[in-house]
Amino acid sequence: MSQFTRPTFNAEDDEDLERLQQEFFSQGQTPAAKVIRKGAPVLKVEAPTMPALEDPTPAMPALEDPTPAMPALEDPTLPELNDPAQDVEYEPVMDPNPEPHVPVSKKMIDLTSMLGQVLGEIQEHTVQKVTAPSLREPKNSKARGQRDGFPKPVHRSEFKKRLEASRQKKNERLEAPPKVQPVSGEWDENEERISQMSEEELKEARAEIMSTLSPESIAILMKGLKKKPDEPIQKTPPTKKPVGKEDDEDDLLKMKEKYFADVPLENDKLAWIDDRFLSVPQEQEKEEEGMASEVEKVYRKVRFDLQGSVCRGEIPVHKGLHHHGDEPEKAGYTLAELFYLMRSQVPSQRALVLTIVARIIERAKRSQDKDEVWQKVLRVFTGKEHAASVYLRSALDDRHLVVLVSAVRALAALVLDEKREERKLYQFMGHLMRPVIRETSQPFERKGLNDKLTELVDRVHQTTRTVEDWKDDATLAEQDLPRALIKMNLLPRLRYLLAAESELRKDEGSMELVMRLLTRLAEAGEDVCEMIEEEELIEPVVSIGMIETSWPMTEVGQRYPSVAAVRLLTTLAQGSKSIAEGLVDKMTSLLALLLTDPEIACEEMKSEAYALQLETLNLLHVLTCYGFIVPILETLQDPVMDWLRNVRTRQERTRACAAVGLLEVLLHAAADPHKTVPEHAIDWHQPTAYLPAILALLKDEEVFEASLGYLATWASYIDLFSPAKETVEQVWKAVIIQESSFNSRPSAASVGYTTHHVLRYIQFISAYATLHHACYQTFAKEAMDCLVEAEGYVKGSYKKDLFGRYALWIWLKHRKEVDMLWSIAELETGMKCLHMGITETWLSQDFLQLCLSKQVVDEKMRPFYFQLNSTELEISKALFRYDGRGVKTFMYPQSTSELSDVSAFIMSPIDALYHLDKSRVAQQVQEDAATVVVKTFETADRLLEIEHAMAIISLMKVFLIGDREGRSVDMESDKEIFWDPVVQSHLDDWLKRVCKKRTNLDTLEAAWRRSSVFIRQTHLPFFQFFQSFVAHYASVSLGHHGFARLLVYLVTQIDVVDYRHLVLSDYHDILSTLKVGLNEVPQLDKKELEQLSKGGLVLL
């Protein structure tokens, strides 16, 4: 404590005052100030200071009684104001502070004149005996309330305040106070404290209690003291009330089922009372709200240090990161505070906050799988509630370099993903990209001159965006972050940052992040790649990443070609053929990256040199897939041969795989010289010259799949180029031997075959199995035997991915005598391919033809099952054949919609007729509705057993065909098709099978959603469909037995009040027409029959 600071004491504690006074006198301390009495200033008598007191007729009585014992207020014996006796001079007081100061003047308030009309007469008490204060003798014991020589801070007793307030109340006291059950632990603690007190302290405490409490309170305490138990009272935990019948009786749902069983539930109105009344969408919404509230707690409460780590709550003030925020006693910053400081007016503060945010995001992405808190932290940045993407995008518009560097890093941390898989373009169709584009996302369109002019004018005028625009951007960012950033005009800003005059261009790390950002944006789709080209970003990327660099990598610290720049060019080439064509001329500048051996680089830069070489090979691979033959290929013949021979390290093996993949594409190009640009730019002998080297690579397990793909492609053109029999035999034996050797390895037994391995092997043996030349028939027969033995490989892989599906197609093409199980596999795989989009359109059509053609599907029914676009079909074929002439891009989006099952696909013609107003195929079909329904039933009978719940939904749709709500008038038929004799016969057969099995509401609702894409788009509830079914029966059925049987079956199986109340109460008049026997529905127990009969439904 400072020596100029007086220790604090409690003004209400007499002992502290006495101790301080004693120390003052005993130590002879000098007082801090002296009082010098001077003469009062001369006052003028014209205006009296207290006119109220000088008034001869005062309005109020005198303040004091005019008793002879007290002098009057204006005693004439007082000395005059200018008494010479008061002019005595005293010694002045020296100021301890040498620095000059300004004296403080106090303005005196004349309270007497102000309160003269308010205060009444003051009466004083008569004092009988006055005791002068005396000093207490010092004792050795410490004063109460002190510790280590310092007084404890004593607070005013709340108990005393309450006690004094209770004395003023005139309420009657209770004769018997409430009994308080003593607790053994607290009683023992009080006994221990009392036993440690000295006699003097006990007397003081007793006197304090006697002076504080009233006699009545003391009597009550003494009365309770006499009843003190001899033995300590043990705590008994409160017993929990057993859950039994009483709880069930109090439950609202139980009461409703007991007393109001026939009253329908209104779940929407009861959802706020109990979660059991929530519908499925409401339950999901509630879970999302709960998740949002937890995320909000993380946003407001969790604190982070400067390194992005979560701060511990017990960090002391002098050690932690403390600040002047909302809770300065807690270390670190919350995300809410960081988002606020991101808009600070101080550039250095903005830069610091952005750096912290970048570290938080990076740490959250690394730890989200380990800790739930980090998952919620990441949800703050990816969700729309806090618009983190909008904040970070706005930070890029800063004009200070230090802020720009931090903003680029923060945005890159949000957009980039460190766990992205390595691209393997050497695999089959590895040059294709499958971006995930949501159905709600709208593709970007190229801007015309008018659009560009309008955008330029808005930038000049600095048109500000509204709050609603920012909210829309945040919502889009939650679903599709790259497209949201592009919508927020990120590309023009990046073009400015990459310009030659930009200061950020000098920072190599920021430039690398910008190029990685552009690569991630380009992966979003073909339209984004075209927008990047339109914004003229390719030229600065080539300039910064390749031209303005040094080579080779012999020293650390120099600026070398950027891997991110080359990868961006590869991605742009995949996105657009026009961009790829423009990059052909730029490949000359990359020749040095391919010709220079990475081993000559310094040790620290070797991995970077290998990565550059590999990415350049990937770019060359993509250009060749389009058919562009780059002139530098002739220069690469010798280096490629060296790459295939040197496969000692993992980096060399990866490079060899990329080279083999490039040679495989060149085989396809050489087989048809019209595929290339320019035509006849490559001969067959050029890529086949590497055949011996690739045969040697079969011994390496990591390069085996790539080598097998090259050999399978070479074998597919044997009949066209007719190589020597010895060469064909040598290749066959080498592959079979290495495949057997691979099977015997421990890694194959533990890990198993990859789907790509299975595809490459099936491609190879099927190519040999289709050899037609007489000299190759021996190999063809052996290959056919291998195909038969490969059935197990195909079974285990065809459901996994594209490789497995294509392997199944090749295998089935040569195995014509397969059984019915493989027909179902064909159908399932064909539907999966159909769901995958344009890439597998051709494969899907072939699978469906293989399956449905065997079942003799009518030609007029084929449009229901083969709804394929001819243009998409041609593109898909070209992709599988490596023919880039009709291809404009290698980016094809994946479908995010739910995959339909086999049963729904087979029954899709019935669904198309039910949705006649939406289905173009149903509108254009030549057959009438009854014929379509009959043929659909026949196809399902021949092909497979339809799922039970899907069959029920389809039968309900059959009865509703011709009168569905929302249909156009001109589409309605003359009569319902269930009156058709042939349709009625099939309905009876299907009802016999369907009505034997039990079902429930959840199964039917799931089948209803899966039965049609139109239903999934509109989110139509099953209850509404059931209402239409019942209403249609009441209006047009005329007691149709099949219709009635299906309705009764649904009523017996759906044990939900709303559904039964609809039939038994709302449509009570139709119950007499429901003439269905007990044997026509699943067996019901006695209780169920009683409930139905009580409602009016009697089964025969």
Automatic annotation (TrEMBL):
Q: Which UniProt keywords apply?
A: Nucleus, Transcription
Q: What's an example GO BP annotation here?
A: transcription by RNA polymerase II
Q: Where in the cell is it found?
A: Nucleus
Q: Where is the RPAP1/MINIYO-like TPR repeats domain?
A: 939-1082
Question: What SUPFAM superfamilies does the annotation carry?
Answer: ARM repeat (SSF48371)
This protein's record includes keyword Calcium: no
Tell me where it mainly resides.
nucleus
The annotated regions of Basic and acidic residues compositional bias extend over: 136-176
Residue limits of the RPAP1 N-terminal domain?
A: 189-223
Gene3D superfamilies with a match to the protein in the record: Leucine-rich Repeat Variant
Where are the annotated segments for Disordered? 48-104, 126-203, 227-248
- Which residue ranges does the record assign to the RPAP1 C-terminal domain? 302-364
For this chain, the family text in UniProt reads:
Belongs to the RPAP1 family.
- Protein name (database record): RNA polymerase II-associated protein 1
What's the source species for this entry?
Rhizopus oryzae
